[in-house]
Amino acid sequence: MTRSTPSSPTAAASPSAPGASASFAALPLPPHMQANLQQLGYLTMTPIQAASLPLTLAGKDLIAQAKTGSGKTAAFTLPLLMNLNPRRFAVQALVLCPTRELADQVTQEIRRLARAEDNIKTLTLCGGVPVRNQLASLAHGAHIIVGTPGRILDHLQRETLDLSALNTLVLDEADRMLDMGFAEDIAQVIACAPKARQTLLFSATYPDGVSSMAARFMREPQEVRLKEVHAATKIRQRFYEVTEAERLHAVGLLLNHFRPASTLAFCNTKQQCRDLVAVLDAQGISALELHGDLDQRDRDQVLVQFANRSCSVLVATDVAARGLDIAQLEAVINVDITPDAEVHTHRVGRTGRADGEGWAFSLASLDEMGPVGRIEHAHGTPFTWYPLAELTPAGSGTLQAPMATIQILGGRKEKIRAGDVLGALTKDMGFPGAKIGKINVNEFSTYVAVERDIAAQVLRALNAGKVKGKSVKARTL
Ligand code: ADP
Ligand code: MG
User: 0.90 exceeded by the pTM?
Assistant: First the structure.
């Protein structure tokens, strides 16, 4: 399961036998942190956590390679928290991430893991938000900064961020940061950090660029690599031959036949995304498009709706989907075949995450058989083709998503917490908790997923009622 590489002479063997479950209790973590992990439902360590935490909690630099969804965030957050002195008001940890979405996800996970500790402040600094909006937050002080290399560097150059008290540096998704051209920015950021620090590097793959980055910036790093258990056999690939006239309609046929709860559909162009969403909409299938023209706020809203099950199909171009980290995708549909075999592999690899099974459907016209042949060659084994005619609607009813999202104007800036909203909805307004889904509190907005059949009532109740003693404005997305 884990193996140490020749360059890591002291790499400890994994404390748990492969497959065995290891308890967090074995780790040198204080009782309040143990209790918090229990409350979060983290009962046993994931393999990457079991292999890396004994090393990182002992202060070692670490290179860890494991696939998405394997629990890497907690693997670096626990050592980072142990290195931190909450009474010292200075930035002590920095986590570099490739995209804003990932930075937001990491920040949320850090906040959950840090909540047992008093007053640890975590701040996200990414592009897409005016710099001046971040200055006030920075002036308030933060212990942990999570952000993208470009924006972090920007703050360092403006001297609005000071890393002189830094003791932990994390490079999360290092391979993707390099893919996105952040190598130089990362080097410049690290040049501003103290040399005496713990450096933790996480990556899903281990290309040469990552190893040279490790050699440059790390001190005798230990290496932990988890073999890809994400076997190709878990992802069932099916190819369907279509004419151009059939293509968009065929997506509806696939969805009606297989009924995946969540699907990412890839198109080669923005226009194709728009056309597909229109076709699916007309069939009562909740679909939203994600493309480069959306501003950050719209993009966030689309992702919130997809994650909270208010939308079951996300239609995206490759560029827009880059850096997206969505767990539990049941299906990927290649609405158009990509000319690049590697892109195909990336697309397909997004399903079947977290050791689940996944479907990958590809629609190909005769004109696309050239690229399909190249993809097949790279894949190594021949693809299986299925006739469109086998697709018959399974069951009745529409494919509408089970939830709807209500946006409350007001978020962290107004000190709204998920518990306040849940309390208002269940205690004050009398809605059953079981009908309320995910609640996302962003900086300026709160998004509440509720079962579709009560959405209109919830909206009325929120607009007439109060949250945390204050009237709020709400709307359905
Ligand atoms: P990665 O960064 O490797 O893609 P994440 O850190 O985002 O993975 O973790 C994936 C999911 O697993 C998150 O929802 C996280 O809360 C959850 N998780 C992580 N560690 C554990 C654990 N030990 N027990 C249960 N859930 C966990
Ligand atoms: Mg991660």
Answer: no
